[in-house]
Amino acid sequence: MTTFEPESIAGEAPPADSVAPRDSTAEAPTSVARLNGTIRDFVSRWNTVWVEGEITSWNVRAGAVFARLKDTQSDATISIRIWSSVRGRIPSDLGIGDHVVAAVKADYFVKAGDFSFTVSAMKHVGLGDQLERLEKLRADLRREGLFDPARKRPLPFLPHVIGLITGEKSDAEKDVHRNSELRWPQVRFRTEYAAVQGDRCVPETLAALAKLDADPDVDVIIIARGGGDPQTLLGFSDELLVRAVAAASTPIVSAIGHENDHPLLDDVADLRASTPTDAAKRVVPDVGEQRALIAQLRSRATTRLSQRIAHDIAQLDQLRSRPVLRSPEPIIEQRAQEIFLLSARSRDALTRAIEGGSRRTAELRASLRALSPAATLARGYAIAQRADGAILRDSADAPAGTAITVTVEHGSFRATSEGDLTAEAGGGDVDGRR
């Protein structure tokens, strides 16, 4: 349970009809008035502090300005009041989107239970300080390689759909549409509106970027604004936005339109255009120029093709002018005579080869016939074989009673051996040998 300090500072005695907040119980609760008085007394001890932030609302009413101040690095906000007695001492051009430092003192209004801060002084944050922080962030991102030209993606030659992030009904939107459609009438856009300054600039631009980057039909994204002073362009140097652009998968064109002190978005984008009009000219090709280029290429192709055909015709005429092609009959006749002579020589050689082969065949046939067993049988000789097929070469191989098959020139007959006749003839062989 929270314990409050004694209510003895504000100069006004707390209501006596209730217990102090520190002594309250369920049976004896404190009153709302006494609780608010205690909070006021506690808050009134706080000293004045200097705080830095961005003005996100600015409502001028009779006697005071009611506004809100937002932290530049988070979503934290506070309510502030500027009484009319202080307005004369602060810059008259303060408004939504301004980056300021203010001297504030906490205040708690007992009647409404409203906590806010009362402003006693306020001024713009020095642009030099902002630029110094901006340059430090620029150096850090450059060291990380987010500005490296090698990581920048090329733009498509003819995007089917262009994603556009810009302010609603802004001149930047009109410039991009008008110049793109003049260059290529069929160009199509997917437009997401976002605040181009103030506290809504970064979150709305991030949401639009995420939506277009996730659309598979979008080929390139243009983030456009029609220029402005460095103070109003600070949203396009926000680190969250810069890193989101670097991480996007779709090529991104920065067309913020500020030449000097350009925002970090220009450095990390895949292409920096000087103005929204320049972005349209860089992203969309000119249909007239493309038609002229096509006509020029067609003319060059026709010329080259005509030159090639003329060159080939000239070479063909040159070949046809040669004697061999101009009158080919003599060479054909010469070649025909050569073929006739070669054919005759081939026939003669083939005839001689056949005749020689025939003679050789006859000689071999005569030799074979002379050595043939049939020729031997024709001269009166016979071949004697035993029943087992063995040819008899010795009379001893056919003792008396041996069955013999005798083959003569014309057929065979069976015989039976009566024994060896060598002894009966005087002991000599049939041819007189012993």
UniProtKB/TrEMBL annotation:
Pfam family, one: Exonuc_VII_L
Membership in a protein family: Belongs to the XseA family.
Ranges for domain OB-fold nucleic acid binding: 31-122
Top-level taxon of the source organism: Bacteria
One term under GO cellular component: exodeoxyribonuclease VII complex
GO BP annotations, alphabetical order: DNA catabolic process
Keyword list, A-Z: Cytoplasm, Exonuclease, Hydrolase, Nuclease
Function of the molecule: Bidirectionally degrades single-stranded DNA into large acid-insoluble oligonucleotides, which are then degraded further into small acid-soluble oligonucleotides.
Protein name: Exodeoxyribonuclease 7 large subunit
InterPro entries: Exonuc_VII_L, Exonuc_VII_lsu_C, OB-fold_nuc-bd_dom
Subunit relationships: Heterooligomer composed of large and small subunits.
